[in-house]
Write a structure and sequence with these properties.
With 816 residues, this protein is of the alpha+beta class. It has 13 helices and 54 strands. A nine-stranded parallel beta sheet has the order 33-32-30-27-23-22-21-35-34. Strands 2-3-4-5-20-17-16-13 form an eight-stranded antiparallel beta sheet. The protein is globular, with a radius of gyration of 28 Å. The N and C termini lie far apart (86 Å). It binds alpha-D-glucopyranose. Alpha-D-glucopyranose binds at residues 269, 297-298, 334, 407, 466, 481-482, 540. The site of alpha-D-glucopyranose has 9 residues, from loops.
Length: 816
């Protein structure tokens, strides 16, 4: 030890004498090699490869080696040839694409990303650029004036991450505090905002990484990987939506979810035996609280052994699942990666004989403890293991299981110190836990997705995961793990889901009601209201806590919850079309206001940062459970209070009353929102009329309506119904474009429901005058009088104009 200290001091002194720093940054370019997709640059301190992926995406790799990594678990796109021009100057090289400019200065090697007009989007900190301290590599970027940072996946904290630092290391964090870090998922992608410009950066290095957005310094933002290459993608686009599109072009989009999987889901740790599950399902139906899914947490298994059933609790699983199906319920089982070390247990014996588990460097299987006791862990980075795992779901699928909940896949072990020397195949590139850890959960979800997709005869598998890495959206939805029943957590959850949405994960949710402990009735009720506007909507509660079903908190809460879940089911056509958008351009379902109102400083204010758009046109203003008056911010534009129909102009702060039964919801002027009659599950057909709500506004709007069978893949062969509907404020018309796809809509009629139109409005379809009806509607009902000395609360009624039309395929318009 003494000797080491003496040597280190000596080394430091000799470096100092030579005027050298321990921090070695990329130095002067010594040679340049042009390649088809970019350029390779060598310096005395590291080499760099620059590749153009698309006009908006440029990859920069910096390595101390002469070769560069070519594999990635996240990226599915390839670099493109011939889509840029290289301009060579004495002191710099300049890459021009159709969307951006990358300036590469040679002495020392540094990068500046600009838009086409020459405005700086992102630039290296000129002195540090990309540097190494030992093995650890960091890229330092100049902190721009008033720069804001959003995204970075499942990260707590404010919407604007300025002043914060974060670590990426997938962590099993039970009952994490609402500002805890790191949590379960690693998505090293963020968006920077300054001078009315935006850019994105994705660091694709799976080792532990660190992001600094001006924490403890006022000079730079930076990203660090503890080992491996600096490997990042610069994304240039003029809007946040455009950046998300480019990022998801790179890392993939989600597949169309089955309709049932976007309905309400009921979970608890754990429902058993079978009788309890059936009675739970019956209660939902009796009480007319719509729901689609019931979960089986770990107690369904025999001693927590994956791919088994506890036959005492569930003697006839298939019969029970058939009965659930008969009541319109789908089901999801939990699967954990730990395979119990137990002789004659099939999964264990197969894993052992086929050599599928994670290993110590001496070749023996790693053993760690989780729910079943001592376990081996499948190596999901080995293609052989992925195939085996995927095929092992056959029994579940034959029993009639519909969805698969991948938990504990950070991977979690008791002791929380997974040894770094444990090795994985890493798709042929054998590596240590330091590199494979952050992709383990994603590769488990991938194996589950790919395996069950093959087994489920053309149905869409539903996969949920806790741990994740960039690109997870291709396989699975994410939930934000073991949260707590606290107001702070409810709000943190909203921001986590919004941040995941900014980071390519459109399908995400939190445990509604708070997992670790018991919620007050006010908190549960509020959380269910907000959850009704969460992409993935599931209530979950930990073992040993009191009952936590929609009816467990008294009659009033039950009615409020029924109202909001029912409203989500009314919104199904809108929600499904929003998910369709996610499959096309990566746009999230829960959209942080930073997507549409990026440069409005008010939306980053702590009071308003939780507000978001649910789909294109409904703004949700989440409020805490214990305040009956709250402040809401309406950004630019026209807004209607969804409950009262009162119209507001934007750019103003409001005080709003938020009694327990009312969540503040606002609709954009010119909005087009398709709704349906309430159904009790996605398996029930709604009435044959679509209710198309249209809100008068002074701007134009274009809306894509999408419908398909809600299950299966026939839509890939054209079996869908898609229609563009445009609201034209100047021409005063609603234009229904011709239907695309060859599936008839489930709605044979369209009932137009016009909000905010003048009392005298008359309409024509083509040249035919149509007669409008005046009606009173109630979107979210009130609450009955339960207490003999209490009062009932009326729902908010509004007067609208309506018009029924046939849902014809051809183009037509309605004008006023
Ligand atoms: C983990 C999960 C939780 C689950 C529990 C038992 O804590 O995060 O959702 O209920 O394990 O399986």
């Amino acid at each position: 030890m003494k000797k080491f200290t003496f040597l280190s001091v000596f080394a430091l002194l000799s470096l100092a004498m030579q005027g050298q720093s321990l921090n070695k940054s990329l130095s002067t370019v010594t040679s340049i090699t042009e390649i088809a997709e970019g350029v390779i640059l060598n310096t005395a301190h590291g080499n760099v490869k620059v590749q153009v992926y698309s006009p908006t995406v440029i990859r920069i790799q910096a390595s101390k080696e002469n070769s560069f990594n070519t594999s990635s678990y996240a990226v599915i796109a390839n670099p493109s040839k011939g889509i840029f021009k290289l301009q060579k100057e004495e002191s710099k090289l300049i890459i021009h694409t159709d969307s951006c400019i990358l300036e590469i200065s040679k002495n020392p090697l540094r990068f500046i990303l600009k838009d086409k007009a020459g405005n700086v989007l992102n630039e290296d900190e000129k002195d540090f650029g990309t540097s190494w301290i030992g093995e650890e590599v960091t890229t330092y970027k100049k902190m721009q004036e008033n720069e804001k940072f959003i995204g970075l996946g499942e990260k707590t904290g404010n919407l604007n991450r300025r002043g914060e630092g974060y670590t990426n290391w997938n962590t099993d964090f039970f009952a994490y505090p609402s500002n805890g870090d790191p949590l379960y998922a690693t998505i090293p992608f963020f968006i920077g905002i300054h001078h009315d410009k935006v850019y994105g950066i994705f660091l694709d290095n799976t080792h532990k990484s660190h992001f600094n957005f001006g924490a403890s310094n006022n000079r730079f933002s930076s990203f660090t990987a503890e080992l491996g290459e600096m490997n990042y993608y610069l994304i240039a686009n003029s809007t946040v939506a455009g950046i998300i599109k480019s990022y998801t072009d790179l890392t993939g989009k989600m597949e169309m979810p089955s309709l049932w999987s976007i309905g309400f889901q009921q979970c608890r740790y754990s429902y058993y035996p079978d009788k309890e599950v059936i009675s739970l399902a019956k209660t939902f139906r009796e009480k007319k609280i719509p729901a689609d899914v019931i979960y089986f947490d770990i107690h369904y298994m025999d001693n927590y052994k994956i791919f088994t059933w506890d036959t005492n609790r569930f003697p006839q699983p298939k019969k029970m699942l058939d009965e659930l199906e008969g009541m319109g319920f789908k089901n999801v089982v939990i699967v954990d990666p730990g395979i119990k070390v137990e002789k004659d247990y099939k999964a264990y014996e197969e894993g052992l004989s086929r050599d599928l588990f994670l290993k110590y460097p001496d070749g023996s299987n790693y053993t760690g403890q989780v729910w079943p006791g001592w376990c081996h862990f499948p190596d999901f980075t080995n293609p052989k293991t992925r195939d085996w795992w995927g095929a092992s779901f056959k029994g579940y699928v034959n029993d009639g299981i519909d969805g698969f909940w991948n938990d504990m896949n950070e991977p979690a072990t008791w002791g929380q110190r997974f040894p770094d020397l444990v090795e994985a195949n890493f798709d042929g590139q054998k590596t240590s836990h330091r590199e494979w850890h952050n992709v383990y959960g994603m590769q488990m979800a991938r194996s589950t997705f790919e395996g069950t997709k093959k087994l489920m005869s053309g149905k869409r598998p539903f996969i949920l995961t806790r741990a994740a890495y960039s690109g997870i959206q291709r396989y699975s939805a994410i939930w934000t793990g073991d949260n707590r029943p606290e107001d702070d957590h409810m709000m943190a959850g909203v921001r986590l889901v919004n941040s995941l949405g900014l980071s390519g994960v459109a399908n995400a949710g939190y445990d509604v009601g708070g997992f670790a402990g018991e919620a007050s009735k006010e908190l549960f009720s509020r959380w269910m209201q907000i959850g009704a506007f969460c992409p993935f909507f599931r209530s979950h509660k930990m073992i040993d806590a009191k009952d936590s079903e929609p009816w467990s908190y008294g009659e009033k809460v039950e009615e409020i919850v029924r109202n909001y879940i029912s409203f989500r089911y009314k919104l199904m056509p809108y929600l499904y079309s929003t998910f369709y958008e996610a499959t096309q351009n990566g746009m999230p379902v829960a959209r942080s206001l930073s997507i549409n109102y990026t440069h409005d400083p008010m939306i980053y204010d702590w009071k308003y940062q939780n507000q978001y758009l649910f789909g294109q046109s409904i703004m949700v203003a989440p409020v805490v459970s214990n305040k009956e008056i709250n402040k809401v911010y309406l950004p630019e534009g026209e807004w209607y209070d969804l409950n009262t129909e009162r119209k507001y102009t934007g750019k103003q702060e409001l005080y709003v009353e938020t009694p327990m039964e009312t969540l503040p919801l606002y609709v954009k002027g010119s909005a087009i929102i398709p709704m349906q009659s309430v159904v009790q599950s996605a398996q029930e057909m709604p009435h044959d009329t679509m209710y198309l709500h249209v809100y008068m506004g002074s701007g134009n709007n274009s809306y894509t309506y999408y419908e398909d069978a809600g299950e299966g893949y026939a839509f890939e062969e054209g079996k869908f119904y898609k229609r563009q509907i445009a609201f034209d404020a100047k021409k005063k018309q609603l234009l229904f474009e011709e239907v695309q796809g060859n599936l008839p809509s489930k709605f044979t009629n369209i009932k137009l429901i016009l909000h905010g139109f003048d009392a005298q409005t008359s309409v024509k379809s083509g040249n035919n005058k149509m007669s409008l009806k005046q009606e009173t509607i109630e979107l979210i009902p009130g609450v009955s009088q339960f207490d003999p000395i209490g009062k009932s609360i009326d729902g908010k009624k509004s007067t609208v104009k309506t018009l029924c039309i046939k849902n014809n395929q051809a183009k037509f318009n309605v004008s006023w």
